[in-house]
Amino acid sequence: MLELLGNHTVQTVTLGAVLLGMVSGLLGSFAVLRQQSLLGDTLAHAALPGVCIGFLIAGTRHLGWIMAGALVTAVIAALFVQVVTRYSRIKMDAGLGAALSVSFAVGVVLLTYIQGHASASQGGLDSFLFGQAAATRPSDLWFMGGVTLAAMALVALMWKQLKLVTFDPLFAGSIGLRVGVLETLLTAMIALAVVVGLQMVGVVLMTAMVIAPPVAARQWVSRLEHMVFLAMFMGVVSGVVGVLLSAGVPNLATGPVVVLVASALVTLSLLLAPGRGVLWSWLKLWREQRSIGQRQMLVTLHKLAEHHEDPYYPVERSMLDSFYGVATGHILRRLQARGFVVPASHMRQEGPHWALTDAGHNEARQELERMDWNQAGV
């Protein structure tokens, strides 16, 4: 890995991946929390016509013109979605889907036209579909760095307003904030982030860089500021690890590998994140099932003891197995470890017997009180 970092091309691509991860994690957090995850996909596909138009204007594969064209068409698509959803009955997901499909269709038509009629200088233009990280030049890093700094400055200066618009746009409008302007500005910045990633991961895969790091970060934290920083960190990790893997293994495209690393972080977060992870949910459910089984057993033994007017009435385990329909030995042993039951020496030829202790009776009474309160709706 250290040898790879000594390569000038790898260094350039790695820095580009760092900048892409930062801006994607920063602005993608707002898109995810606003439930506009499809926005990144729409803007990425809407950038393809701009790539073609920029090429036609410049007459060559000039990155400046191509990026400018991509930004214009992405912003136009975003504004189209906002206008349509605000002034018609079309929902956000339908508006995003329409803008995505129409924009990408126009882009494919233009790309086909260029490949069929333009000069040989159009070679490699279709690399914007899936990215061509190795073509990143040091001059491109200045553009990417400028966009990243602009995005960070914007978010820092308007943090409270953007946070309020993200979580409660109705209240933001009631206190005089121009919600439409703020949403448009934030959407334009997301479009700019998408344009930054076209060279690295391409039109098709850029949406993953906008969505994956924030989604992964959201599983670990519950505050916006923590989510933003963690999403930026995960975006950087995805970019750097993806670049190094693609550089170390021959014939691996950088963009898809970066996306796969980001997807792996999402998978690990969904599985392992405390409180929200799938494994933690399963563990919590398992503990609750164990707890419910123990509480039920205590109540059963307590009621049997009351019925027989003997607080230490020995209950045959086989009877408990028949009553619950499952083996209850493991539940009784856990209760014994907690001091709630003890083995009883009673009619050993019929199998083991168990009796409640004083602590077990107290715990059973508390459980019965909780059940009464729950039934009363208190």
From TrEMBL:
GO cellular component, alphabetical, reads: ATP-binding cassette (ABC) transporter complex
The UniProt keyword set, sorted, is:
Cell membrane, Ion transport, Iron, Iron transport, Membrane, Transmembrane, Transmembrane helix, Transport
Report TM segments. 12-33, 38-57, 63-84, 96-114, 141-159, 198-216, 228-247, 253-273
**Principal localisation:** membrane
UniProt cross-references to Pfam families, sorted A to Z = ABC-3
Any one of the GO BP annotations: response to zinc ion
Q: Which domain of life is it from?
A: Bacteria
Where in the cell does this protein reside? Cell membrane
Membrane topology per the entry is: Multi-pass membrane protein
Q: Does the keyword Nucleus apply?
A: no
- InterPro entries hit by this protein: ABC_BtuC-like, ABC_TroCD
By sequence similarity, the record places it as follows: Belongs to the ABC-3 integral membrane protein family.
Query: What is the protein's given name?
Result: ABC transporter
